[in-house]
Structures are given as C-alpha cells and as structure tokens.
What we know:
Layout: H1 2-25, E1 28-30, E2 40-42, E3 48-53, E4 56-61, E5 67-71, E6 79-84, E7 90-95, E8 100-104, E9 109-114, E10 121-126, E11 132-137, E12 142-146, E13 151-156, E14 163-168, E15 174-179, E16 183-188, E17 194-199, E18 205-211, E19 216-221, E20 225-230, E21 238-244, E22 249-254, E23 265-269, E24 273-277, E25 282-286, E26 291-300, E27 303-310, E28 315-319
Antiparallel strand pairs: 1-28, 2-3, 3-4, 4-5, 6-7, 7-8, 8-9, 10-11, 11-12, 12-13, 14-15, 15-16, 16-17, 18-19, 19-20, 20-21, 22-23, 23-24, 24-25, 26-27, 27-28
Amino acid sequence: MRYLQIVVLVCMLAGLTSAKEKEKHRPILFKTESKMIHDACLSVNGQVVVCTDSKSIKAFNVKTQQVLATFDGGHKSKILCLDLSPDSSMVISGGSDSILVLWDFIHHTELQRITFATGKITSVRFSPSNEYVLFGCSNSRSYLYSIPEHKMVHEFDDQKLDITSVVFNPDGKQLAIASADKTIRIYDTSYFKELALLKGHTDWVRGLRFYNNGQRIISCGDDRKLIQWDVSNLKNIKQTIEQTIGGATLSVDIENVNTKNANLQVSGTQQGRIQINTFWNKFNANVHCPVSKVLFIPLSGQRIQIMAATLGSGILLFDAADMESIDYK
C-alpha cells in the first residue's frame, strides 16, 4: 500500500513539473478584446507594440504587457491594417469600412479622416519622413497621401488584383507594392515612375520588406515561397535565395534591415506555423490558426524574441529558445 502511495505521489509531482515546464515555455499573451488580430507594428526601439483589436487599436508596453493607450471610435467595422510613424507621434489605421484614420499617438485623438478610397484598406505605411502615407486596397488600387496637405498625391493602378502589402525603402525615395496578381512593383516617389516589375511568385504575394539599406527585398506568398531579391541594380534584378516554407506564408520579417543577407528571418503561415531561420538553426512553433504578422523584437544580447499577431489566438510574444516546445492552443 505504501509503495502504491509513493508511486502516485511521484506521478503527481512529475505531472506538476511537466505542467510548470509547459507553462514556462508558453508564449506571453497580450490582453485584447478580440483574438482576431489582423495587424501589428512595433516602435523603432521595440518597446511598444500597437495592434488592431476589432474596431479599436491597442498599444502595449512590450516588456510589461501594460496597456498604454486605446484608440476607439474611428471605424465602423473591423480594422485590418495599421502603422506607427517612425517618430512614434502618429498612428494610421485602415479598415474594412474603406476609411483611414490618422491618430495623435500621444494624446489618443483623431487628427484626420481619409475617405476617398473604395474597397477594404488592406495595407498601410508611413514614409520615413512622417509626411506621407501609402496604402493599398482590395480594389487593386494604392494611394500616396500627403499628411501636411491633406490630399492624395498619386494613385497607383498597375496592379490587376487586391493589394496585399505596401512598403517604403529606408530613404523614402522608392516604394514597393505587392499584389494578388503575383507581382511586386517598385516605383520612385518623385515622379511615380515604375522602376521594376518583380516576377517570381506563382500565387498571391502576401508580404515584403526592404533590407540591406534598400538594396534588397524579401517577399512571401501563398505559394509557400520566401524570395530574396537583389534590387541594387533595377535593370538587372536577381533572386539571390528562394526557400520553401510549410504553408501559405502571410508575413515575413528580418531582424536587421541594414544587413546584406537575411540570415535571421521569421515567417508566419496560414496554417499557424511560425518559423525562425538563422544561419545555424531553425526554431518552430504552432499556434493552430493563421499568423497575420510576425515581427522581430530588436535584439538584446543573444536573446531572440518575436511578436506574432494571429487570427484566433490573439497577439503573442515568443522567445526563440522556447519555441521548439510550443504547440499553442
């Protein structure tokens, strides 16, 4: 009888240790009203994360998970995309209601309302100078908007299907637009001339990012591909690396946009897989729902952390060292 009691006690302690270990490796969850987080962005220093939360926006302290601000009342339906200005003074949000709202990030008030677009607003970015906003829509149109002048500067209409992602290069002299028509187009921001057409994806292009000081682009898509492009010579664009990921890839990020090679990258898939690729290893986690955005937290020493916005599990903070043991539900 005593032997049986000891066995039961050992099993209980083992179960408790296993539960504690599992809890230790669970990602940190930020408290939002909705678990469907369509977009998120970080401040330049990585100390603040801003995310969509149904019809609202929330800003959190990354280290403490404390809510810093909530932005309400700007949209009639769910917010699909947002961005924080490089100087952290403004937030821009775009929704399925075809409206963009420019917010004062410091005072949490509405500054401007942009209503000329048609179709859902699918992607939005501030220019490096904080003067312009570039946004794309489900009507296959993208627009450049001047904040000081309160007006549209240019409409881009070369894409044939939904706009999925828009970005500026680091100096703001070029911009890139990705589309469901499988292409990426690069334009100059002075005369809006199309400088290059990138063809390599065989399905919707979902995400892209300039790196190496604007000399390269990394892109992802529904074809499960991550493609790195050398765009230093726009008359001779090269695909430097092409990788296949285990699912339709919705978002990609690299840790250092100034580096020549994207050796430290993270991707998130429609199937819920998050994968960090380094030059020495791979780290994986499964959240069992679509991963709409992945972002590297700026490195602190040798620690690698990422933020993941998901369509079903909220917004999560992962430590790469723990990811192999994470199967999050």
